[in-house]
Amino acid sequence: MADAAQRLQGLFTQLLGAPPPVRVRAWDGSQAGPPGAPTLVVRNRRALRRLLWKPGELGLARAWVAGDLDIEGDLYTTLDLLAGDIWERGEDARTLTQALRDPEVRAAVRGLVRLAGPPLPPAPPPEEARSPRPHLHTKRSDRRAISHHYDVGNDFYEIVLGPSMVYSCAYWKSPDGPDTTLEQAQHDKLELVCRKLGLTPGQRLLDVGCGWGSMAIHAAREHGVSVVGVTLSQEQAAYARKRVADEGLTDRIEIRVQDYRDVRDGPYDAISSIGMAEHVGADRYLEYAADLYDLLKPGGRLLNHQIARRPQRDETTYEVDPFINSYVFPGGELQPVGVTVTQLERAGFEVRDVESIREHYALTLRRWVTRLEADWKRAVQLTGPGRARVWRLYMAACAVAFERNRIGVNQVLAVRASESGESGMPLRARTWN
């Protein structure tokens, strides 16, 4: 067979109702599709079997992680084309059940089955998380999920994140950040958080989901506060403790391997939660907010930095992203920012400021992908090719999602007002800018 690409192009056109916007190169060397367009490389028939057994995003993800599929050309452009011109249109226009009522679609599926070979379901790549459904966000399951994502080796994260070791959206001074390094942008983000919290020497800060200790070190060194940082990752905690010792800040920073639900030594003057609340789960979010509220002094502030999804017209149909849930953040859930604000206020907080920094995350993710690609061989040596491919796809796809306003990220500043209603907040908003 020397026409697999042409057959695939025709079958995809039947299935999707329009020609794919990318070029296809098949395992037999044949090519088809628009000249000059990015190329989707189908390395073997197993890729088709993965799509047949798990139609949609999870099948594509498995094929990518296993190396059965690849992309030649600009990765961001290809992902944008696939997401915008094929998968979103296909999901909006027709469900799989509706599509299979079409004789042409059924014929295309039969054609794919013949082209794919023996219809045995390939085993998922070993990088796929084996988590129970639904994810109940118990302390044990959350600890396992955090370990899946973060305990892949600090050396690997050093490649991606750089010296700042901050794994959340940076804060860029200009639209494209041409004169700003990633390290400077992450420093500016940490400083922004500290200023929003109004930190002053002698205060106590709780850093929930402290990662590799960057926020704790910045707050203690630059603002003179005492910090307790909590994480569920053993590797993060060991790394953070060494950094704290190297900075000579062991008298002001304590790093714990501890669930936020087990922190009992409040009250604190301020709490930072940066890129952690996505792991909490929708059903547990009010509990999360209430726990943090109880840990604050009257007048204490919370800075909740969190990714948000766009609300749907019918929220009952919302499903967790299968690729992210299986390969990146098992049990992770995104909520609209309005839901986050409502839950914080239900817990007793007064929300004082909401700032969207969506475009900043797209810039950050592109820098991370650039760093990963620049040291690709070493990244593969440290984590294996499958895990490295997971991170490259996840970060590039998220960059496109932020750019296209499919997801956002927000800093929500909330305060625990006193019984008499005093917030301790300045009269003029945004004094930190």
Would you tell me the structural class of the helices and strands? alpha/beta
Q: What is the CATH domain class of the largest domain?
A: Alpha Beta
CATH superfamily of the largest domain: Vaccinia Virus protein VP39
Provide the gyration radius in Å.
Answer: 23 Å
Describe the 3D structure:
With 433 residues, the protein is α/β, with parallel strands linked by helices. It has 2 domains: 4-116, no CATH class; 139-415, 3-Layer(aba) Sandwich (Rossmann fold). Helix content is 46%, strand content 15%. It contains 17 helices and 11 strands. It has helices spanning 4-16, 45-53, 57-66, 75-93, 96-99, 103-116, 139-150, 154-161, 182-197, 214-223, 234-246, 285-294, 322-328, 337-346, 358-374, 376-383, 385-403; strands at residues 23-25, 31-32, 39-42, 69-72, 204-208, 226-231, 253-257, 268-274, 296-309, 350-356, 407-415. Strands 7-6-5-8-9-11-10 form a 7-stranded mixed beta sheet. The protein has a 4-stranded mixed beta sheet with strand order 2-1-3-4. It is elongated, with a radius of gyration of 23 Å. It starts with a helix and ends in an 18-residue tail after the last strand. Mean pLDDT is 90; it is low at 89-95. Belongs to the CFA/CMAS family. It is an enzyme of class 2 (transferase). One of its GO terms (molecular function) is cyclopropane-fatty-acyl-phospholipid synthase activity.
